[in-house]
């Protein structure tokens, strides 16, 4: 299976004129990480659209992880930022690029800065500029946006200052048992050619994981970006603690594994981003949706429990 993500990575790097040195396949690679945790109390959460899901504390902090890849002559570059938020927004991108312009001139622009949210449903809302997305947060929350913008810019600054010669390695493989289709009844209505894309692994979801590995020319591990299709909804819609959910936790575990024992979160030299992919109707809750009151599986065709939708543990 040829991964769409692998193609996108290639387009992002090569399409923007960022090419390795022809002689030794080297790039200039920088990584950075910074806290983007927003208001931890009395702010609606973004994702489930549940008015009662309001922040009441912190499960673990949210982070921005930035990766700069430049050609060996340092004349062109691309920035990929993976953020522990539900999704990137237009106003977020605008403000980040404006702040970068004040710091670096025309070095970082709308064209070479890519911001990707991990799609956690357990982060503060209110950082959008459109009404539909602001309804659940009861309006714009400046504290939410400021925390994210400041953290994203700071992570890019760290990446800019840490650039070093390195190599890129791209690999992919199938990972089973980590995601399921949360709308199987709807999925079977797709054309056969669409469904056959994933039947090779006996399922109705994309199981391909893509990893971009970054290694310094001295053999030192710099960082990695992982793409895998699964919703960041291991924490259900009753959760009120700010959390990076499964992808944020995976980043923490990977960075810890690559660091000396006792390294505090956010202080690892190795930066590991578990980025979002084509998660669509893909859930991490591999046992399937079940009813809150009985614990039994819900009706998959009608998404109900005893004829009601209010008793389902959300995926």
TrEMBL record:
Binds 1 zinc ion per subunit. Its EC number is 3.5.1.23. GO terms for cellular component: extracellular region; membrane. Its cofactor is Zn(2+). It holds the Pfam family Ceramidase_alk. Zn(2+) binds at residues 119, 231. It is an enzyme of class 3 (hydrolase). Residues 27-311 form the Neutral/alkaline non-lysosomal ceramidase N-terminal domain. PANTHER family: CERAMIDASE, NEUTRAL CERAMIDASE. The active site is at 283 (nucleophile). This is Neutral ceramidase. Belongs to the neutral ceramidase family. GO terms for molecular function: metal ion binding; N-acylsphingosine amidohydrolase activity. InterPro entries: Ceramidase_alk (IPR006823), NEUT/ALK_ceramidase_N (IPR031329). One of its GO terms (biological process) is ceramide catabolic process. It catalyses: an N-acylsphing-4-enine + H2O = sphing-4-enine + a fatty acid.
């Amino acid at each position: 299976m040829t991964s769409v993500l692998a193609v996108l990575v290639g387009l992002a790097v090569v399409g923007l004129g960022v090419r390795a040195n022809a002689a030794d396949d080297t790039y200039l690679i920088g990584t950075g990480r910074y806290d983007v945790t927003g208001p931890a109390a009395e702010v609606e959460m973004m994702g489930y659209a549940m008015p009662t899901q309001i922040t009441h504390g912190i499960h673990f902090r949210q982070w921005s992880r930035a990766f700069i890849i430049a050609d060996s002559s340092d004349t062109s570059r691309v920035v990929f930022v993976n953020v522990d938020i539900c999704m990137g927004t237009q106003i977020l991108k605008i403000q980040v690029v404006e702040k970068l312009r004040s710091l670096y001139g025309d070095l970082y622009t709308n064209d070479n800065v890519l911001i990707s949210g991990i799609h956690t449903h357990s982060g503060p809302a209110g950082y959008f500029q459109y009404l539909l997305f602001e309804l659940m947060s009861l309006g714009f929350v400046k504290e939410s946006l400021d925390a994210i913008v400041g953290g994203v810019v700071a992570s890019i600054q760290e990446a800019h200052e840490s650039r070093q010669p390195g190599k890129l390695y791209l690999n992919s493989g199938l990972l089973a048992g980590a995601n399921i289709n949360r709308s199987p009844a709807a999925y079977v209505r797709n054309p056969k050619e669409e469904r056959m894309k994933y039947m090779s692994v006996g399922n109705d979801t994309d199981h391909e994981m893509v990893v971009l590995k970054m290694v310094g020319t001295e053999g030192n591990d710099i960082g990695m970006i992982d793409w895998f299709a699964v919703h960041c909804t291991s924490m259900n819609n009753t959760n009120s603690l700010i959390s990076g959910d499964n992808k944020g936790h995976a980043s923490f575990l990977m960075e810890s594994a690559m660091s000396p024992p006792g390294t505090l979160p956010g202080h690892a030299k190795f930066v590991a981003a578990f980025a979002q992919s084509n998660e669509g109707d893909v859930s991490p809750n591999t046992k399937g949706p079940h009813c809150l009151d009985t614990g039994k599986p819900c009706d998959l065709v009608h998404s109900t429990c005893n004829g009601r939708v209010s008793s389902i543990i959300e995926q």
